[in-house]
Amino acid sequence: MTKRKMLAGPYLVWAAGxxxxxxFMILLYGFTSEDGGFTFSNIAAIADPIHLSxxxxxxxxxxxxxxxxxxxxxxxxxxxxxxxxxKTSTVIMMFILPMWINFMLRVLALQMILANTxxxxxxxxxxxxxxxxxxxxRKAILIGMTYDYLPFMILxxxxxxxxxxxxxxxxxxxxxxxxxxxxxxxxxxxxxxxxISGIIxxxxxxxxxxxxxxxxxxSKILLIGNVIEQEFNLTNNxxxxxxLSLVLMLFIFGSMAVMNKTDADQxxxxxx
Amino acid sequence: xxxxxxxxxERFYIGFVFFLLYAPILILIVCSFNASKARTVWGGFTFNWxxxxxxxxEVMAAVRTxxxxxxxxxxxxxxxxxxxxxxxxxxxxxxxxxIMSVTNIPMLNADIVTGIAxxxxxxxFAGLGMMSMLAAHITLGVPYVILxxxxxxxxxxxxxxxAALDLGATPTYAFxxxxxxxxxxxxxxxxxxxxxxxxxxxxxxxxTKGPGINTIxxxxxxxxxxxxxxxxxxxxxxxxxxxxxxxxxVNRIQNDEPQAxxxxxxGKVAA
Amino acid sequence: xxxxELIHLENISKSFDGELVLxxxxxxxxxxxxxxxxxxxxxxxxxTLRILGGFIxxxxxxxxxxxxxxxxxxxxxxxxxxxxxxxxxxxxxxxEDNIAFGLRIAGKSDAYIKDKIKYAxxxxxxxxxxxxxxxxxxxxxxxxxxxxxxxVNEPRVLLLDEPLGALDLKLRQDMQYELIRLKNELxxxxxxxxxxxxxxxxxxxxxxxMNQGYIxxxxxPEDIYNEPENAxxxxxxxxxxxxxxxxxxxxxxxxxxxxFDCVDTxxxxxxxxxxxxxxxxxxxxDPGKGSMDGVVSHIIFKGVHYExxxxxxxxxxxxxxxxxxxxxxxxxxxxxxxxxQIMNKPESDDEKAVGVEE
Lengths: 272, 271, 358
Fold this sequence. Notes:
Largest sheet of chain A: none
CATH class of chain A: Mainly Alpha
Strand order of the largest sheet of chain C: 6-7-8-3-9-10
Number of helices of chain A: 14
Strand content of chain A: under 5%
Strand content of chain C: 35-45%
Distance between the termini of chain C: 39 Å
Number of domains of chain C: 2
Shape of chain C: elongated
Radius of gyration of chain A: 23 Å
Order of helices and strands of chain C: EEEHEEEHHHEHEHEEHHEEEEEEEEEE
Oligomer: heterotrimer
Number of strands of chain C: 20
């Protein structure tokens, strides 16, 4: 049997070399200054007003796109989960297909629509309406993130709702519940695991995003991802970049732990 | 017992979200056939952008790099991941879950951090180039292979394997004849998934690429910053069709399981 | 003495995806009755129950409840409650909140709800379980909570959809007694769906045997068992020997070339019929002393009796007896005329439903 265990060997070596070791490299850079001495200043640099405001902007925009995605997706997932025909699985595939289209291409498409001489203003102009200046604003970034990550919200919500036993809805109706009570007392609480994982799946990639902000926000708006990217590719302060990456990573795993805790509390009751 | 008005409202809502998701993609496709460079003017139907795309050496180089990189990364990731799964099944629960938590790191961590971490490693020990990109893409792909193979391996009918042993097969023979055919769909969809993830990746490639090398994603990024070039629309349309075919195949393999789709999506988060 | 009529299902038809599940079903349920819908899966018994509960609308026909047409009344407005097959307890609520669900909707006071929960838990022998999570209870306990949740609403009728199906044999038997006790204490009507004939015979006042959307026979458990009206019922309720026969004239039937005495009349002369004989009614005698001779070809010991197969006249007779004979023993077969059931063979397509499916 040990022979079979050996088969995992190559991957274990790989994981040690390319998952664990790189993280140590970030730690190494993050906790040293440019001359190689140990320092906390790269971590503490997050308190710098520019960095802090970048992190703040990232959180606000990521939270905004998460909330919008949730509000748009929840009714959709609910409607789709109610239809029980065999066609549903094709329909849901159609809704998650866009997330498989190259990320850059989706951003490119949005840029075309939102640009000052873009499709949206073309349509508005056709109706004699004032053009909107959306591109290169916070709004554009928000729209971009919501559009890019919407499918990540739809899918877990849909799956959670499909798992809800239809008999529970019947049981509630049998006990006298009308449509509103069925929704608030049965559907909503039982779909919470989907809500949680949807939030994680949209919030995490949004918070570290820099390319969307770059293309749709112009260089005017700095998110924490842009700050880190620039430390590496523009100002060449890798130590500072690593320090801020560590903060970002901590923030991500921290918020994930909080969400998972909420999820686990739910899950405790949801063991089937 | 649902009223007609409600049914209409539901359909309308489905259509509305559907429109929001697909309108941008549709516009890209339409523009790729538009003779006019202006986005809001229809200058007639043309294949010119596809022709000039094929003649654009920079674009073709990026496409070649992407294909070579993606294919080799997916292949190596599939071999590493499948072997790892097989090895892990005979390990203790603790070691298994320890390996799984390490495996989850590239999937859960922000791409920007993963990219930077691997870049730092290569700059320190080897320098950036095709090898650093390949390593990064393999690292990105393995978790998805494991995610697809592991459940299949656990579902595998243990009694069939034991029956084979009982009938005199050696463990290796029994594995090859009984278990491998069983997990093959998982291996295949793992490969295709790793392929798509790798093809789609921008952030990790952006940090680990060597100077002068571009994949499709990083090339589009550069082009978009320089100004819109309709050749990119043509490229988008082709990529869209390729992805469509790929996903259709993966879907066929996975038999429309929503769980599998969720695994895909979970994976996709990090990408 | 017949109790008052409470529910009348009037010519109910229902089809799913073009397949007829219920065909002109007409059924009367009386007050305070324990009525069981019995049949194989797909016979339409669960559909009937779900139409009663209001979860599906019939294509045709009416549901009359206490003189009122409730065909289109939604489930939450009906004065009956269901105990679901898979219990369907709300997993995110504890036992107390599950039981209180219907009462809270009805706007009952907290004190009343508390009393009711206590009473219901006592009734199902689960005192003190208020704060437990239903997910951590055993199947039998979940079942009792599901019953408690239904009965606190004081329904006139309790619908039970194969509630014991998921329990193991011993527990199932215990729950059968429990259900009978509950019904007597509550004094309400139970409509019970099952495919288990033993369950049906044990608990019911009235058994309705269904197959392919038709009611095959309706009556007391004794009637159903002792006088099955057709081959399907005979075969479905207990084991039977079902043999092709020819009714020679009144009180004389020819089976396997031998003429037997029976008590049935009115079938005409030389008419092909189905003859049903219960295995425990086949009496084994010494060779030559019975109506026909045969040889024991199989024997197994079943605890209370032996089950044997006796080949006689080219037919394998199923025989149950407290006395066993070794394989190869020549025996004589005799059947009391009262224990021979004569049935018409199905003639039309409609009647095919009563045919025995092997």
